[in-house]
Model the fold of this input.
Amino acid sequence: MPDPNIDSFTLSFCSLAEQSFIRGCDYLSRGMEERARRSFSTTTGIESHFMDAWFMLAFIALVNSKPEEARQFLLRILNEDAPFHGQYILRFLPNLRMQVNLWEDFAFQVMPTTGDAAAIAARIYLIQNRPREAKKIIHTAFKKYQDNPVVSIVWAETMIADKAPDQVIEEIDKKIFVHDGKSDLDLLLTHLIGQAHLDLGDYRSGIYHWEGMLSFTREKNPRLTDRFKILLGKAYESKGYLQDAFDVYSSVEDQSMYIDADEEVSFVRGKLIEKIKSYKSQGIVKPLRFTEVHQIPRERPAQGYLELDHPGGAPAY
Done:
């Protein structure tokens, strides 16, 4: 058994639903995923309010790339009146680590709680391009679980997708500083704040957040850093700051990463070089750097921790 203190005699004092759940944990701990899934399913058949079993079924569904099925299981938890704390999971699978991919190169650890269940369900809706349904779930969770960073991230993503970036800036900016402002989750929140500013047309604040964020991601997650750089490069490019876009694309370590569906970083860099050369040959004068138009703030902003000190020209990525 996953818990050495649980033996057949002890099991005899458990309900049938509990016995089935414990067997499922035992199967899962030994790598027998399908047998575990059947045991957890049996548990819910015996006791439909056994939330730990629904959560484990959702987790197994996610591992097997079945998000729609996982969402249905999570909704069973969210429809319960009582809060979910995962007491059975924590007791009988104490070493289980559950992660959910946020992006291709970023995953966050989730816990068996009502808040995390809501965040996962809402994010599945987002992946399915259904922000209104996501908002119904995550808005309630955001009110109840203010200190849950996973809930905050999915809430911010949802509000941006639902065209409400102003609310993200108002609510999320202050949450970053609960810790040191440099954890993976805090960095992702900073990215979302930057995105919210960009969506509102405030490129100065948006790029300010994104540039500063890169100085903290470099040593933590190189692939995530590259992905952030690509997003920053695209933001520069969309506003015509082609030299900045070229510089940041050039600093991407994996030049084979795709910027869009069919264009690698190295290919886009080549296109930017040609465009910059054509401007010069035609005598077209355009600001090619962000700092030619915007003064980078050197003072600490009212609600920010990122400090940049670029005297001009390209920042050192």
User: Anything to note?
Assistant: Strands lie at 98-103, 106-110, 258-260, 263-264. The chain has 15 helices and four strands. The two ends are 51 Å apart (CA to CA).
